[in-house]
Specification:
It comes from Lottia gigantea (Giant owl limpet). It is found in: Mitochondrion. It is a single chain. The chain contains 14 helices and 20 strands. The protein is of the alpha/beta class. The chain folds into 2 domains: 14-268 and 471-489, 3-Layer(aba) Sandwich (Aldehyde Dehydrogenase, Chain A, domain 1); 273-453, Aldehyde Dehydrogenase, Chain A, domain 2 (3-Layer(aba) Sandwich), CATH 3.40.309. The longest helix has 21 residues, at 111-131. Helices cover 37% and strands 20% of the residues. It has helices spanning 14-17, 56-73, 78-94, 96-107, 111-131, 170-182, 195-207, 225-234, 247-258, 282-294, 314-328, 347-362, 413-421, 436-445, and strands at 22-24, 27-29, 36-40, 47-52, 138-140, 148-155, 158-162, 185-189, 215-217, 238-244, 263-267, 272-276, 304-310, 366-369, 384-389, 404-410, 428-432, 450-453, 472-473, 486-493. It has a 7-stranded mixed beta sheet with strand order 14-15-16-13-12-17-18, with helices on both faces.
Length: 497
């Protein structure tokens, strides 16, 4: 932590937000075994600290606390829950800079991105502070005059959440605040690489007045993570599982949740197409490519993964993109000024990206720029532009999760849509066009839960976030997100004279 820039005079430091304990029932606790594991900075591999390496027994205990707390929390008024969330939102903004420093230290993204994420995460706290008071039931008109038909909306129960490392703040608030607003209690297992952001949020939630046991965080290493996840899925006290991560892991969690018939939200992998038609504004399309492909060094599930460019504008687009990448992308430690490309999360991520690039080159792709590991350290990879890419290459089939832009060529609209849809993923898709008829056609034909038209970054608190096909189940964010934590109860009142 010594390498994290200090706070402004009189302000709370990031180091003060770094908790080396888990958070259960309003208390900072260790693993029952006493085991811990180290958390490192991906930029320089420096050890930031340790956290408890919790197992299935620790997780079971946290779930029991959450279940007991639910019996009272579910009876609080919507206004009470709203007020607490509002205070949490205000505290998050107050400590925005220090929370951002934690993200940069444990995840590596540049400070500008981290600060943006904290602001984005805070918006979900604010949003659900408002949505808490908008959970309305219904009165249904009955065909029998002696009956009254009611629909009540009630909190589902204990919600367990497994969150990712690429957005260690915002992915927690998007999930947990919807559940808490609905009257549920929460147990979170943050990604093993980024536990400190989750724990810092717990501190602020407690300061805002969230009662003990409503929000609980269990930390675990990669070795214990499968046991923790399985315990959450198989516990009869848990009624909801929310997961963001790989499709392969999501399928495991779905199978484990089947015996107890849990409601699940699965935000899984993507393979986003990014289509540039010949009617597009090229400058706008190139700018959108930079935001969509290279945000978070390409480590998001909605990153442009397959960039499809019409043959008439292919060479011009390639030239403009290369020039923009050279001019605008700067690789380095997230705390350095002007850096906008941080490290990948670990060495395995670098190895995967390199193997995907090597596969493309071996099959005929041309490296326009990059294609190599960075010179800043072991986890850095240079922004890469590949031309002459074809669908038989791994980058045409797999989620890259790194700063590699593979450019495909197409001839017709039908061909582009067919390539875009030829995947089991269906999270986000993008296309650029100024032809209004084409915009309507393609927006409707793309088999994705979210579509950006002339926009490369589309996530916002007001809009639903979720995919189709093997990219997942359920919705996060927006007015629809809170429904994932609500059960409908039909009440038939008879004997009305």
């Amino acid at each position: 932590m010594d390498k994290i820039p200090p706070a402004a005079s009189g302000a709370k430091s990031a180091k003060e937000f770094l908790h080396e304990k888990a958070f259960v029932n309003g208390e900072w606790i260790s693993a029952k075994s006493g085991a811990t594991y180290e958390v490192t900075n991906p930029s320089n591999q420096a050890v930031l600290g340790v956290v408890p390496d919790m197992n299935d027994q620790d997780t079971k205990a946290a779930i029991e606390i959450a279940y007991k707390t639910f019996q009272t929390w579910k009876n609080t008024t919507a206004k009470e829950r709203s007020n607490i969330l509002r205070r949490w939102f205000e505290l998050t903004l107050k400590h925005k800079e220090e929370l951002a420093k934690l993200i940069t230290a444990e995840m590596g993204k540049p400070m500008a991105d981290s600060t943006g994420e904290v602001g984005f995460g805070a918006q979900f706290i604010e949003w659900y502070s408002e949505e808490a008071r908008r959970i309305y039931g219904d009165v249904i008109s009955s065909s029998n005059p002696k009956r009254r038909l009611l629909v009540l909306k009630q909190p589902i129960g204990v919600a367990c959440m497994i969150t990712p490392w690429n957005f260690p703040n915002a992915m927690i608030t998007r999930k947990a605040c919807a559940a808490i607003a609905a009257g549920c209690t929460v147990v979170i297992k943050p990604a093993e690489d980024t536990p400190y952001s989750a724990l810092a949020l717990c501190e602020l939630a407690a300061e805002a007045g969230l009662p003990p046991g409503v929000l609980n965080v269990v930390t675990s290493s990669r070795n214990n993570a499968p046991k923790v996840g399985q315990t959450m899925c198989e516990s009869p006290l848990v009624t909801k599982i929310s997961f963001t991560g790989s499709t392969a892991t999501g399928k495991i969690l779905l199978r484990q949740s089947a015996d107890t018939v849990k409601k699940t939200s699965m935000e899984l992998g993507g393979n986003a197409p990014y289509i540039v038609f010949d009617s597009a504004d090229l400058d706008v399309a190139v700018k959108g490519t930079i935001g969509s492909k290279f945000r978070c060094s390409g480590q998001t599930c909605v990153c442009a993964n397959r960039i499809l460019v019409h043959e008439k504008i292919y060479d011009e687009y390639l030239k403009k993109l290369a020039e923009t990448m050279k001019a605008e992308l700067k690789v380095g430690d997230g705390f350095e000024s002007d850096v906008n490309q941080g490290p990948l999360i670990n060495s395995k991520a670098v190895e995967k990206v390199q193997s995907i690039v090597d596969d493309a080159v071996a099959k005929g792709a041309r490296v326009v720029m990059g294609g190599t590991k960075g010179d800043k350290g072991g986890n850095f990879y240079n922004p890469t532009l590949l031309a002459d890419v074809t669908t038989n290459m791994r980058c045409g089939k797999e989620e890259i999760f790194g700063p590699v832009a593979p450019i495909f060529k197409f001839k017709t609209e039908d061909e582009a849509v067919a390539i875009a849809n030829a995947t089991t993923s269906g999270l986000a898709g993008y296309f650029y066009s100024k032809d209004i008829s084409q915009i309507w056609r393609v927006a409707e034909r793309l088999e994705y839960g979210m579509v950006g038209v002339n926009e490369g970054v589309i996530s916002c608190v007001e809009a639903p976030f979720g995919g189709v096909k093997e990219s997942g189940l359920g919705i996060e964010g927006s007015k629809y997100g809170i429904n994932e934590y609500i059960e409908l109860k039909y009440v038939c009142m008879g004997g009305i004279e």
